């Protein structure tokens, strides 16, 4: 059961599940993984999932169906990390997922919807991300365990575990 939102620093295990959620859902939706880690950085980050943006995608270009699907996949992928973390932590950690939610709203959701539709569209894509996390939990668990053991994986190494 996931309780109401609160905030604290994420544990290393929660970070591993968070990043694994990004990787698994991103892979399912066709977002190309470059690398993933659960290493702290000097900017307050506790883990990083890096994806390659395809050369045909430009945020300034008009969204045709292909670009719209990709932008939706990226938003859903960003949402999957906090959802996977919440499943392990037992609550939605606002501190642990703040960057993802800010990045989604600021960088990607604005490509899909006018500001007055952000919240409704975010809700729709959250439902999709939750379903993908639930359906693919064993893969998320495998990858999280590998991250806890190795701390950092290339894209190819992570995808071999899936």
> Which percent bin holds the helix content?
55-70%
Radius of gyration: 15 Å
Question: CATH superfamily assignment?
Answer: Peptidase M41
Distance between the termini: 26 Å
CATH architecture descriptor: Up-down Bundle
Largest sheet: 3 strands, antiparallel
- Total of domains: 1
Q: Write down the oligomeric state.
A: single chain
Strand content: 5-15%
Figure out the total of helices: 6
**Overall mean confidence score, pLDDT:** 89
Question: Would you kindly provide a written description of the structure presented here, covering whatever features stand out?
Answer:
- The protein is an alpha+beta fold and 162 residues long.
- The chain has a single domain (6-161), classed as Peptidase M41 (Methane Monooxygenase Hydroxylase, Chain G, domain 1, Up-down Bundle).
- It is built from 6 helices and 5 strands; from the N terminus they run E-H-E-E-H-E-H-H-H-E-H.
- The chain has helices at residues 12-28, 65-89, 94-112, 118-135, 137-150, 155-161, and strands at residues 3-6, 32-37, 48-52, 91-93, 152-154.
- Strands 3-2-5 form a 3-stranded antiparallel beta sheet. Strands 1-4 form a two-stranded parallel sheet.
- Helix 2 (65-89) packs across helix 4 (118-135).
- The longest helix is centred in the middle third of the chain and has 25 residues, at 65-89.
- It starts with a strand and ends with a helix.
- The model is unreliable at 1-5 (pLDDT under 50).
